[in-house]
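Researcher: Re-running this chain for the archive, since the previous output was lost when a drive failed. Same request as before.
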Amino acid sequence: AHLLQFCNNFKDPGIQHYGNGNLFSDIRDEMDDIFCSLPAPKCSKDGAKINMSVFYNAAGGCFYGKCKVHLMNGTTKLIKDIKPGDRIAPYGGMIRFVVKTICQNQKANMVIVSIK
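Model: Regenerated structure tokens:
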């Protein structure tokens, strides 16, 4: 998107300033339709229903807490249990901090976090 300087989705704040014309809006809207038609992620353990609208929020979190991730030590862990110091496979990126968002009724009030 940056290379071609066009806004292809609503989530990335870095590309929202590229174009406000019909072409740009059409591309973004088409990508939104594709995103909204994707099936919801499958739960790792329980069979609870997930509505994709939970993830359709530019200010929302990136991961559902009950998804599993692989760690560099060969184990797996639920996203909700990730803590600073964990290393995520396959590249070994170390978790520096975790922001957890509690959602009620599939909505969350977001806060601004600053590091001092």
